[in-house]
Amino acid sequence: MAWTGLSIGLDALSYGMVLFIISIGLSIMMGLMRVVNLAHGAFAMIGGYLASFALKNAGVGYPLAIVLAVLGTIAIAFPLEFLLYRRIYRKSDELTQILLTIGIAFVIIGVANYILGPTTKSIPLPPLLSGPVDLGFRMIPAHRIFVMICGVCTAGLLWLLIDRTEFGIRLRAAVDNGDMAESLGIKTQILFSATFALAVGLAAFGGVVGAELLPVEPFYALRYMVTFLVVVSVGGAGSIPGAVAASILLGLADTTGKYLAPEYGEFFFYLAVILVVFLFPNGLLGRRH
Amino acid sequence: MTDRAIVDGMSPPRFSVPLELRAVAITLALGAIGYTLFPEDLAFLTRLISITLLVLSLDLVTGYCGVATLGHAAIYGVSAYVVGNACLAGHSDPLLLLLVGAMAGAVMGLVSGVLVTRFKGLPQLVLSIAVGQLIAALANKLSSLTGGSDGLSGISPGRLFGVYAFDMYGRTGYVFSVAVLMVVFVVLLRIVHSPFGLLCQAIKDDSLRARMIGARVYPRLVLMYGVSGVVGGIGGALNAINTGVVGLDSVGFERSAEALVMLVLGGAGSLWGALIGSIVFQVFEHYVSAANPFHWMTMVGALLIAVVLFAPKGLVSLGGLLAGRTASVLRRRP
Q1: Within a domain: residue B3?
Q2: How many helices (H) and strands (E) does chain B have?
Q3: Distance (Å) from the alpha carbon of A155 to chain B's nearest alpha carbon
Q4: Which residue from A121, A276, B100, B273 could staple onto B266, CB 3.0 to 4.6 Å apart?
């Protein structure tokens, strides 16, 4: 029984870490720009596609493929930021944001399916990550451990970036009071664009390393969109510790539900979501806006 | 918007044809036009009317109360399932089934309303999605009641008024649906122009101000959600009665998202907008999506972006603009 619990815990942790890496970008965007970006999952999907292409068709190594996927996704997303997202930062109502970003997600899904077909694209792992690792009580794919390390590193580096750098100070100033930051000479528009690039890059990174758990296919963007949004809401927009807590909690709810009562599907996941959102409307560790 | 609410409420009734009478004439005319244009495809039209009721129902909460929801299909789907089960249990009178659907919808609407309208912003959106997904997961699980992924089939309603059978050509179903849509539309026009409807619009415009003048915001929104549930429930009931099958797609996320797209295309905050949006969208879909469902998705996405950028108030505002111009041109003539 204890081993089962630990087993569930490990799976939940690796799943939660994937959720965290992808959702944290969305959370930061929501905290700073107040944008509900329903196309966030689509950017993670683009990252996965690019990595798959780089590995299988261009023949580059796994680490380089990750870098290329992240940069490529940022390059693809940037025109969208310039033309569309800029209009909805901080001011427009939710309905406008939902519609615009869901429209973007639909277009990306349609185009991805047209160019690449409806099949799932695999991202071959390097030999180092593809084998199992013996933990004594069970075997675990090495890849899961890699995902957990990625998650911890992402959280740590983001914390350093936001808490310790000049960029982070400006970012926090703009979150706290955008107008005041602007009048103190902080160029918020540039800050927003940089944050958008960071968010999209993180999504792409998560899309690549999490591809074993969330397979890359055209409907990826819609299938997991809700999950990412839920992580942000439960964690509290803009909070890194909140997103970590929410990712692990929801990973646990989902994995436990699927282990113990698989026939109920996502039922327990969403039940947990309703309870948490009702009890903590600003998120577990979020602030009141 | 607030100004509009005040004007609507205070201006003396115009001398022209009453709104309700116009609504009756227009729905009947649309019904007749549909019948002439698609005489071989009445099943499509009855489906269109059923979805139109869902969009009208969504308009009540999104357009008139400002609640952004992506889980509205839960109301539609649950009532379709309840109606299906009632019919399979032997209660086959169509009017009774309609009533059952309306009641199931009202219950679902009140429950969703209690959960969804409690907060604003992101928590509200996430709660609406979670309620929708919860219902979808349940519908999948309780396959003894819903038929699971095969769908609930074999629903065969009895004769309407004991006389008109629901035949395979769908004439009875079509006439029945048009009549139901007409009645619902007229009643809704009354409701949104009633003091209660105007108060909801005031809450949407500025809930703090509404609270200051003594409105009890939360109960009002929950009540409007209940009304919306009745309308959505009638839509779901029509779906079950006319098609005889209820599938998992009637509670799915895509159904909710598509209803929102139709509403915004037509113009949220106007019943005419909901009507126009759902007709235009579905007729367009009828022709285009048959060709390639994925191009269809790209096009819906592009359409959404275009509507947000160029016609944020929907098609109905363009129509209103046109009508306004025509009226002023006419008035200038001697």
Answers
A1: no
A2: 15, 0
A3: 23
A4: B273
Residue A87 touches chain B, beta carbons under 8 Å: yes
The Cα–Cα gap between B260 and A100 comes to: 12
Could you tell me if residue B6 is inside a domain? no
Residue B39 contacts A, CB cutoff 8 Å: no
Confirm whether B122 is domain-assigned.
yes
Distance between CA atoms of residues B41 and B34, nearest Å: 9
Instruction: Give this prediction's pTM.
Output: 0.85
Prediction ipTM score:
0.83
Show the domain range for B288. Answer: 15-332
Which residues in chain B have their CB less than 8 angstroms from residue A102's CB? 257, 301, 304
Contacts of A226 in chain B (CB under 8 A): 129, 133, 253
Looking at residue B31, its pLDDT comes to: 79
Using only C-alpha atoms, chain A has a radius of gyration, in whole angstroms, of: 19
Give A95-137 pLDDT, tens digit per residue: 888 888 989 998 998 888 888 888 888 888 887 777 777 777 6
Which CATH number does the domain housing residue B293 bear? Answer: 1.10.3470
Residue B97 domain flag: yes
Listed as ranges, residues in chain A with pLDDT below 50 are 289
Residues in A closer than 8 angstroms to B312, CB to CB, are 96
Q: Are B250 and B128 in contact (CB under 8 A)?
A: no
Any bridge partners for residue B164, and if so which?
A: B160
Number of domains chain B is built from: 1
8 Å CB contact of B297 and A103: no
Report, as ranges of residue numbers, the positions in chain B whose pLDDT lies below 70: 1-17, 158, 162-166, 168-169, 292-294, 319-334
